[in-house]
Automatic annotation (TrEMBL):
PROSITE patterns: LD_TPASE
Keywords per UniProt: Cell shape, Cell wall biogenesis/degradation, Peptidoglycan synthesis, Signal, Transferase
BP-aspect Gene Ontology terms: cell wall organization; peptidoglycan biosynthetic process; regulation of cell shape
Annotated coiled-coil segments of the chain: none
Protein name per its UniProtKB record: L,D-peptidoglycan transpeptidase YkuD, ErfK/YbiS/YcfS/YnhG family
Pathway annotation from the record: Cell wall biogenesis; peptidoglycan biosynthesis
Signal peptide start-end: 1-22
Enzyme active site: H140, C159
GO molecular function, one term: carboxypeptidase activity
InterPro entries, A to Z: LD_TPept_cat_dom, Transpep_catalytic_dom
SUPFAM superfamilies associated with the record: L,D-transpeptidase catalytic domain-like
Length: 183
């Protein structure tokens, strides 16, 4: 019952975070159910990308190292790496403080790990990437992978994947600090 309540609260938090900052901020919404990624300016859609892929483990409130899930939440682009094996890589600030608090509460990380993640967030740095919560979550292309697999399956280790052509178009919008809401 407590787990169901936490999940419901996470969904409410996600909905509220999407309503926040609805001014002229450019931001990204990843709709995992519809398999779309949409770039917005405030509430106005600028460009939508269909047939995206997410983690082979589906989506979850928390991503753990090796589980293949895509974490839900509100993130920011912290780093852009190009070239990358999958084209460019737009790394997100996962895990966020709320993920660390939940994992600590569930006994999956210790207080020191939680505190390191909280400190990184307060300092505006990329959080530790080698904890039980995993890391290297971001947006990337297919690279030299199979477009057929991309079209038909969720195949990543937890990231959001676009086709290479879509990634090239996404690059014109993406900036360091841009908010990315995954729901």
């Amino acid at each position: 019952m407590a787990r169901l309540m936490r999940y419901a609260l996470t969904l409410v938090w996600l909905a509220l975070s999407m309503l926040a900052d609805a001014g002229t901020e450019r931001w990204v919404e990843v709709d995992t159910a519809a398999r779309t990624l949409t770039v917005y300016e405030g509430s106005r859609p600028l460009q939508r990308f269909d047939n995206i892929s997410v983690g082979r483990g589906g989506v979850a409130p928390l991503h753990y190292h090796g589980d293949g899930s895509t974490p839900l939440g509100s993130f920011h682009i912290m780093r852009i790496r190009s070239p990358h094996v999958f084209g460019s890589f737009y790394q997100l600030d996962y895990p966020r403080p709320e993920h660390a608090e939940q994992a600590f509460h569930d006994g999956r990380i210790d207080a020191g790990t939680r505190d390191d993640i909280l400190l990184a967030a307060r300092a505006g740095r990329l959080p530790p990437q080698y904890t039980a919560l995993g890391g290297a979550i971001g947006i990337h292309g297919v690279g030299r992978g199979s477009y057929r697999i991309h079209r038909d399956f969720n195949w990543t280790n937890g990231c959001v994947a676009l086709s290479n052509a879509q990634l090239h178009q996404f690059a014109r919008w993406a900036k360091i600090g841009m908010r990315v809401v995954i729901r």
